[in-house]
Amino acid sequence: MKAIILAAGRGSRMGNLTLNKPKCLLEVGGKALLEWQLDAIKGAGISEIAIVTGYRSECLKDYGLVEFHNSNWAHTNMFFSLTTADEWLKKDDCIVSYSDIFYETNAIDMLKNHEGEITITYDPEWFKLWSQRFRDPLDDAETFKIDRTEKLIEIGGKPKSVEEIQGQYMGLLRFRPAGWVKAHLIFEKLSQKSKNTMHMTGMLDMIINSRILNIETVCYKGIWGEVDSGSDLETYQKMYFS
Fold it and tell me: Are 69 and 57 a contacting pair, CB within 8 Å?
C-alpha cells in the first residue's frame, strides 16, 4: 500500500495566502495541511508516500517524499496531475489524497480495509459542515448518490435540493491497480483539451457511466475539512480547535 498526495495546483482562490507557497502548507489547528495528511497516512501504517508537485514545488523538498512533477500544472486539472504517478498506480494499491484537506487516521484505515477497485470516502453529515462554510450550502455542493450496496451512482452534478446529496465526497480515495488501469483507459480516449481540464469528480462520473467497474464508498464521520478560502481556515479553527 502506497499513498499519493496531489499538490500541483496553486489554490488561486486563497489570494495572497498562497503567493509564496502551495496551499498544502497553510495551517489549520496549529499544523500545515500537508502535515495533517502525512500524520494520518503514516498513522495507518503507510510509509511509501509520494507527492505530485507543480506550483512552488521547491517548498516541498524538505519533506523527503517521492516526487512526481506536473510541469504543466497551470493548465491542467486534478486527474491529469494524478496520471504523473502512473508508475505507482498501475503496480500497487494507492491511497490518493487531495492536498487541501485534513482528516484523521481512521479515514485511511477504512480505505485500506476496503476491497473495491476504486473506493472513495464521503461525509453523510456534510450539510452541518457546509452550513458553517457557506450562506447557502447548495452554492458549492454537488450531487452525490449511492445505491443500497453503497456503490456510487452519481457525483458532480449541480443539485436542486439537498435530497440529491447523500454525502460529500472528501477528496480522499483509493485505487487498486485494476481500477486505475480501467480509469486510465477511459481518460486516454479523451481529447487533449478534455484531458487537461478533467477534474476528479468529472472522471468518477465518467467511470460510473462507462459501466466497466463500480466505485465503492465508505462513510466517514470524523474530523475533516477542505480549504478553499481564508474564511475556511477561520471556520475550522472555531469548529474544531478553539
Answer: yes
Residues 127 and 137: beta-carbon distance below 8 Å: yes
Residues 126 and 171 sit within 8 Å (Cβ to Cβ): no
Cα–Cα distance, 183 to 165 (Å, whole number): 24
For residue range 14-28, what is the model confidence (pLDDT) as tens digits? 989 999 999 999 999
Closest CA to 196 of 85, 86, 75: 75
Among 27, 20, 22, CA closest to 8: 22
pLDDT at 242 over 90: no
Residue 98 CA to residue 25 CA, distance in Å, equals 13
In the block, cell 452519481 appears at 154
pTM of the entire predicted model: 0.97
Mean pLDDT of the chain: 96
SS3 of 124-188 = CCHHHHHHHHCCCHHHCCCCEEECCCCEEEEECCCCCCHHHECCEEEEEEEECHHHHHHHHHHHH
Q: Mean pLDDT over residues 56-85, rounded?
A: 97
Q: How many angstroms from the chain centroid is the CA of residue 184?
A: 17
User: What DSSP string runs through 73-94?
Assistant: GGG--HHHHHHTTHHHHTTS-E
β-strand partners of 218: 121
